[in-house]
Amino acid sequence: MSRIALLPETVASQVAAGEVIERPTSVVKELVENSIDAGARKIEVMIRRGGISMIRVVDDGVGMDRDDALLCLERHATSKIRTGADLAAISTLGFRGEALPSIASVSRFCLTTREQSAIVGTRVEVSGGRIENVRDGGDAPGTQIEVRSLFFNLPARRKFLRAETTEASHCEHQVHLQAIGHPRIGFVFVQNDRVVRQLPATENLLDRIRDLCGAQLANELLEVPEETLGGIAIRGFIGKPGVSRSSRAQQLVFLNGRAVENSVINFALREGYHTALMKGQYPVTFLFIEMDPAAVDVNVHPAKREVRFRDHASVREAVVEITRRTLESSRASWTKTFAKPAPQPLGSALVPSAVSGVSPETLQNRLPQGGGKLISESAARDAQHGTRDECATLSFAALPLQPSSAPPRNDTTFHNNHSHATAIDQPSSRNDFRILGVLGKLYVLMENASGLVLVDQHAAHERILFEELRRRMETAGVPAQRLLMPLTIELPPRDADWISQNISTLQKMGIGIEPFGASGVFKIDALPQFLRHGSGGETEPLQLLRDIIDELRQTSVNTSKTRLGEDVIATTVCRHAVKANDYLREPELVRLIQDLLRCELPYCCPHGRPTMIQISYFELEKKFGRKV
Predict the structure, then answer these.
(1) Domain enclosing residue 34, as ranges
(2) Are residues 287 and 186 in the same domain?
(3) Each residue of 140-176: pLDDT tens digit?
(4) pTM here?
(5) Torsion over CA of 534, 538, 542 and 544, rounded to 10 degrees?
(6) Total number of domains in the chain
(7) Same domain, yes or no: 257 and 156
(8) Is residue 160 part of a domain?
(9) Helices H, strands E: what count in the chain?
(10) Same-domain pairing of 173 and 234
């Protein structure tokens, strides 16, 4: 007797439906995408009890006649493609013809549709995949689909659903996702008969982001002007340096109008931000990528969340390059924000003060041997004995001053030049900042036209040293140290093949490696100077190579290979940069700010922490109750 039997059609439909319809949000996604494909200008989504009890999606799209309304409930019936060749040029969100029959097979389903020019529409009622009633309908032009009692005939699947509030939040997130991806369509989201979101159609993507995510986030975004690289057009908005999240929840990427997840794009975004992000943080992005449909495969996952690229290297290069350009172009706006001319104090001329005792060249740094501090010895002695420079007293007529020979009674120390502040002379010969003092022996207080600016002297010095050392390495190459005893390692075939193709790159990084004897065996006779090898917690060559292979595979072709040692550079400069409680005299503060403003990424340290914070007059006035 044969042990193999054909499944009944109803069971086969339920099995297939489980791949497409996982939970209520899957229903919302499929129905909204159908509405978008139908040319809808307004879409209303209504749910009850998290979508478990009822989901209703109403649109004003093209609608269907009776024949199409019945045919759309058949599996693999679709208007999107006709032949196998069409799979190579999919330009719509849906194309398989699986969504509606899958939903109808696991719910009590009602479809009401009417073409724009038709006098009467069609109403089809389905229960568990079986058509129960077909009759005329008199609703407005467009399509309305109502899904009740989801998974009523699959109690095992229903048990795996989360709490109603959780399922409702997933449904709302799906509406948010589609609303951001298609700002020219109006969306209404109703939960338990209460209007939660009402989003009018807009031509401006930033307005839609502001409506959904708030004005605060919208103000922290940088616009990515539409640009095409290698046939790949990219536009949208990305977060400013330092604007990040601990997850990818707000890392939204749309490919040809479809929200997608792809590891290539994720790595490209991280690489584009580079040191502008802290480790473990993810950028905030609303990125739109348009490319030839034939160059991407969306038929990978039943829910169409994942995609594959024919040439993933080109996509990665385009995303990395455009992200870099956007962040670099933001430097001009950053400078305008932080470097507005400070107001002239009453009764005093704003001129750079005369300084004596310390040369500003103390911050024209080379990394000192033995971890020495980058301040002068005389300044260090002054700090140790609690004395102040002649230019380091801030005069307040109504406040008593600490004696110059005694340390202050708290951690707040102000340094300034008698009755006027120090002005920073930018390359434009414009006095943009006025140094007011130093707070807590760490934060440099400055004034500009927008308000108060705080500079973390340690983070700022880290950025200066980091870029200086990286420039040296890129110019002169990574210094290598020969090993007394060359090492041999054997690698798996895939890794060995990859290393064989990239030996020249590894040698530029200071790693002396070459094939040795049998296939897959390599000899290492040199390592970068900033790495140690051996035992006792030091870097092992085999682990080093594996780490380098993994990182190089994730970086773009145009990425500077010195980046692979940047973690070590960042750690090194962190040890040598000025610390909290390190006393900097006035010329050193001036030079610190000047050098910071000349950096490529002056707004963050190599670890992604901000170097400067602007507190506007508006914020100060709110704190003091002068404005609401």
Answers:
(1) 9-205
(2) no
(3) 999 999 999 999 988 888 888 999 999 999 999 999 9
(4) 0.73
(5) -140
(6) 3
(7) no
(8) yes
(9) 18, 25
(10) no
